[in-house]
Design a protein that fits this description.
- The protein has one domain.
- Helices cover about 25% and strands about 25% of the residues.
- It has 7 helices and 8 strands; from the N terminus they run H-E-E-E-E-H-H-E-E-E-E-H-H-H-H.
- The termini are far apart.
C-alpha cells in the first residue's frame, strides 16, 4: 500500500476487467468526408463532416440514444457552429456550451482526423468506485495511452496529476502534445460522464437544476426537457459497443434524416 492508501490489487487493476462505464469512439475518414461514432451507457450517436479544400461544407448527425427529449434539436446548432468553418478551426473553443457537448466533441475529433488514411479507434473504461477508488483508462488503436487513479474525487496517480481533479487538470492536459493530449481530453470527458452511474436517477431528471453546460441545459430548454432514452451497462459483456451503428448512420444520412 502506498502513501495514498490504495492497495496494490486496486492500483494494478485493469479498468476494462472491472464493472463500470465504457465508451467507444471510432473515426472513419473517407475522401471528402469523415465520420466519428460514439457509444457509451447513455449515448449512441455519430457526426459526419463533409469537406472540400479544407472547409466543412456540411455537418450532419445521427443518434440512436440521447438522454433528453430536447437533445435532437442540437443537430441544427451543430450545423450552425461548424458549416463553413475551416477544418483547422473546428476546435473545442467553438461555442461548446451552446451545443450538445458530445456531438461537438465528435465534430472536433472528426475534423482533426479528416486527412487520415485509416480509421482510428478509442476504448475508454472507468471502473465503478470501490472504497472511493476509480481506475480510468483509455486505449488508442488498442494501445494504452493513459491510466489514472482517482480516490474520493481526487486524482492520486500518475504523480503529475496527484492532488488535482478531473475539473482542474486543464493545465496538465495543455502541457501534453498530439495523440497524448487528444487521448487525455477524451478520457477526462468520459470520466466525468461516468460519474452519472453513481447518481440516483431522481437527481439526474431535472434539467433546470443543472448548470448551463450544454444545449439541453440552456435555461430556455431545460425548463421543459424530459429525461429519456435507454441506458446499457456494457461492462457486463452482454452488448457490444458500436454494434451496427456505422450501418444505421449510413442509412439515416443517405436520406439526410438527421437528429433521429
Amino acid at each position: 500500500m502506498n502513501g495514498d492508501g490504495i492497495n496494490r490489487p486496486a492500483r494494478d487493476a485493469d479498468a476494462f476487467a472491472l464493472p463500470g462505464y465504457r465508451r467507444a469512439v471510432l473515426v472513419e475518414p473517407e475522401p471528402g468526408r469523415v465520420t466519428a461514432l460514439l457509444e457509451d451507457d447513455i449515448h449512441c450517436m455519430a457526426v459526419r463532416l463533409d469537406h472540400a479544400r479544407g472547409v466543412v461544407t456540411r455537418a450532419r448527425a445521427h443518434a440512436d440514444r440521447m438522454p433528453w427529449t430536447t437533445c435532437p434539436g442540437a443537430v441544427a446548432k451543430l450545423r450552425e457552429t461548424f458549416e463553413g468553418a475551416a477544418l483547422s478551426e473546428v476546435t473545442a473553443r467553438r461555442d461548446k456550451k451552446a451545443n450538445c457537448t458530445h456531438l461537438h466533441d465528435m465534430a472536433v475529433l472528426a475534423a482533426a482526423h479528416a486527412g487520415d488514411a485509416a480509421p482510428l479507434a478509442f476504448a475508454i473504461a472507468a471502473s465503478d468506485p470501490r472504497d472511493g477508488v476509480r481506475i480510468l483508462e483509455i486505449r488508442r488503436g488498442g494501445r494504452a495511452v493513459h491510466r489514472w487513479i482517482e480516490r474520493d474525487g481526487q486524482l492520486v496517480a500518475p504523480p503529475p496529476l496527484a492532488g488535482s481533479s478531473l475539473l482542474t487538470m486543464r493545465d496538465w492536459i495543455a502541457s501534453l502534445e498530439g495523440a497524448e493530449q487528444e487521448a487525455a481530453r477524451l478520457l477526462q470527458w468520459a470520466s466525468l460522464v461516468a460519474h452519472g452511474r453513481t447518481i440516483p436517477a431522481a437527481r439526474q431528471s431535472d434539467a433546470s437544476a443543472m448548470p448551463p453546460t450544454c444545449y439541453t441545459f440552456q435555461p430556455d430548454r431545460a425548463a421543459h426537457a424530459q429525461r429519456t432514452g435507454v441506458q446499457y451497462d456494457f461492462s457486463t459483456g452482454s452488448r457490444r459497443l458500436l454494434a451496427g451503428l456505422r450501418d444505421r448512420t449510413r442509412a439515416a444520412l443517405a436520406g439526410d434524416r438527421v437528429g433521429t
